Batch of 2 targets.
Target 1
Amino acid sequence: MKKRLLPAILLMACLYGHAQDAKMNAFVANLMAKMTLDEKIGQLNLVTPGGAVTGSVVSQGVDENIRKGAVGGLFGITGPEKVRKAQEIAVNNSRLHIPLIFGLDVIHGHRTIFPIPLGLSCSWDTALIRKSASIAATEATADGLNWAFSPMVDIARDARWGRISEGSGEDPFLGAQIAKAMVQGYQGKDYSSAHNVMACVKHFALYGAAEAGRDYNTVDMGRVKMYEYYLPPYKAAVDAGVGSVMSSFNEIDGVPATGNKWLLTDLLRKQWGFKGFVVSDYTSISEMINHGIGDLQTVSARALSAGLDMDMVAEGFLSTTKKSLAEGKVTQKQIDDACRRILEAKYALGLFTDPYRYMDDTRPAKEILTADTRAAARGIAAHSLVLLKNDQQTLPLQKTGTIALVGPLADSRRNMLGTWSVSGDYTKSVSLLEGIKNVAGSNVNIVYAKGANIADDSMLVKRANALGVEIETDAKSPAELINEAVAAAAKADVIVAALGEAADMTGEASSRSDINIPESQENLLKALVQTGKPVVLVLFNGRPLTLTWEDKHVPAILDAWFAGTEAGNAIADVLFGSYNPSGKITASFPRNVGQIPVYYNHKNTGRPFHGEDFAKFKSDYLDVPNEPLYPFGYGLSYTSFSYGEVKLNKTALKGNETLTATIIVTNTGKYAGEETVQLYISDPVASLTRAVEDLKGFKKVYLQPGESKEVVFTITTNELKFYNSNLQYDWEAGQFFVRIGSNSRDVKSAEVLWSK
Ligand code: NOJ
């Protein structure tokens, strides 16, 4: 009975879907039949009246253009009242009353800010990540919006790149799972509910591979690497039904992504079957002039013919498309297709039924930054923290005695939210000092000292403060600040040093060539360590930092990233052990900048090097080991976990047989805790060179002290597949190693032979 019911339900759902599509197609076709050429081109124009913008150009004459039907969507405004005003102009005053869509950078939360995406990814918890996106969608829609410029899924192997903070790190498998979770969280089942937004996966494509980690820089990559390591997260978002895609600033094979037909049509639409619309990034159409491929008319025509539908801010489509049509540089079909895709999105969002459905004035008070969203943010933030070091069980802290809380990030609400939290209000965030006071209880005495400025380098300060004063320069001299901190430390049993980057030392246009903790704070840290008191370093950072000195000299290091609105509470929860840290890093931490790019899924080379000591004529360095300081997937807990051996149900398989790999994980410590058990597969011999290993699965287990659990992974030939030289995704027979462990370095391994 059940067996018959399922196909029947699927068939009905399918028929219903077709009927809905047919209705939408008829509606849009009918509307487009009434539209003039100018009105069609107008739908392709996305403008911003200002606010949080990421370029020098801001749209002019916005109201007038809306009236003329020359605007398809707006971004950069929030609040049902303001959004309603703009929508009223479109609906009441434009000839065909076509509603606008309203977008925004909702990146890691909207008003309730969650950890920066790199931090979120360290939770390896797709359910929590989905939840964060779903809360963001609720808040954004309560604020009048219906389109989020997220998820950002660019793979990054270069910690110099400031925008590594906005993505999920270096691994495509994990990145793809997170991309899917975020799209689901934003869009719900089909984003027709007024509590869901349309998502926009970005930046398509390869933006994270900018040369030298410098933002907007050139990307150069072969197809095999692209398919294997950089494209999977975008594809996962498309497969999850993402409604829109944002093109990236960089070039691919000499053609900027925004005008790249291979990328936007052949790959995205033809190979992947994407049905939504593509929006450019901020002025990325007109930036193709600087890339050197033509004037505004040429580059706009290039973008439209490549398959790009909506022009963010450049107004190249608006000002040149008619001329290009007359001159045969674009076709009517290209204009129609782009217009249709945008109208379809508006239809799917329900805007033709009710253009004001996201403009309920009663919602913000009930749904934005509530006790519930804050509680969720606190829990999610705690899951994103990574314990990098904990000698002699320095952590968790006792709820007695005196704590010296020191550092320029200890009492800074301003820096808790992290980069690009455009609608977050930092005055509502919880600083570490406040969080510690909330959690520590009355038996703890807290002494606070700033100890240093975030940075003293005036050029860095000026540049990092471009969006507001995140780095304050104290009236006291560096020496005075350090002396005060050392005096505070003298009274304490333990020192908590809150150090790192200011929020906008990462993010867009915030690349760094030196990724140490700034010198002012390093001097402070050295002075604190010299006191001989135990030091807990709580790091605030939007990227992996180089922590070689810190790892050697500081007994405990907790990476807090920028944990969002509830940062201080969440960090305090972890410091005092109310939550046992379980985060694992998703980007390798280099020992120094010279190692970059350093990532776990590297190739073997013809002269591989496997050891601590230098070997002449091997692929290594004279002055530093090859391995990163902390490898991908690494992160400690207050408890310890031991791994048994990998047990396979078979060691020789054929064709589509299934392999089961089992390992016993035991909590050998004193605290209950969660462990992310990671599965890597290594394919040592193939028709082309493979990475030493690739992540192919992970599972979370929660274990009480002394408890053991069996963790089982099911492996099929799917996990063996890779892109071969013909870009076919297939597997090849031979020997494989199944590696299971607590990070990409510390694994137990078992061998298997798999034949065709
Ligand atoms: C430029 C950024 O690259 C992109 O991520 C963002 O969505 C747009 N600006 C809009 O602010």
Target 2
Amino acid sequence: MILASGFARFKRAPLVMATGYDFPFAGILEEAGVDVILVGDSLANVVLGLQSTREVGMAEMLLFTGAVARGAKETHILSDMPFGSDSDAATAVANGKRLRAAGAHSVKLEGAKLEVVRALTSEGVPVVGHLGLLPQTAKSFKQVGRDPAERDEVLRSADDLAAAGAIAMVLEHMSADLAAEVTRRVPVPTVGIGAGPGTDGQVLVLHDFLGMHAGVYPPFAHAFADLRAAALAGAKDYCRAVRTRAFPAP
Ligand code: KIV
């Protein structure tokens, strides 16, 4: 298992991160060799069918973190700090410790909340930063980094996060050249999602890369499987077998 102190080596070797939310898929991701399982607050959308990641709180993150920890005992587990759980340093430290107790090895938080990052780090809760598109507070879902002021802010935030002690940072939906520039200048691994090939590692949402839903897929997602089709076929077979009395066998 990669410990927080082991993240530095992923400045050279590509880090594979995938979101995971439950016990059986955590086991599959671990067996596949994923380096880090992110219990993302995207579970609001892909698991719970909610509109916004702001609609989940600590109760949900603790429940799903525990399930993933039980399913992947040998893999680094990174849990999102849900909206509001990192509003100030003391609140963040208390909630970060609860996520650690539930099985997370590190936590991720959106934006350059430097005092919070420093407090968590000094209390033994390793932090992964998250820059670019920040779903908890975004007003639009457009790509980040085309506007020069926006670029400067991302670059400054990346420097500040690394200096504050972040062990890595996720770069979401930003122009590939900006993500590559961040990657060149920070000493910690960057993990991109919709940020081009120039980051140190990549992260994708489980339900997107396994083709598990019939909703809208982000333009940068790639389906490596079609689990929805397989599950639908199996469920239809079951319905047919019961209705024709082919199942159960006498
Ligand atoms: O919650 C999540 O799944 C995330 C990824 C999009 C990086 O934060």
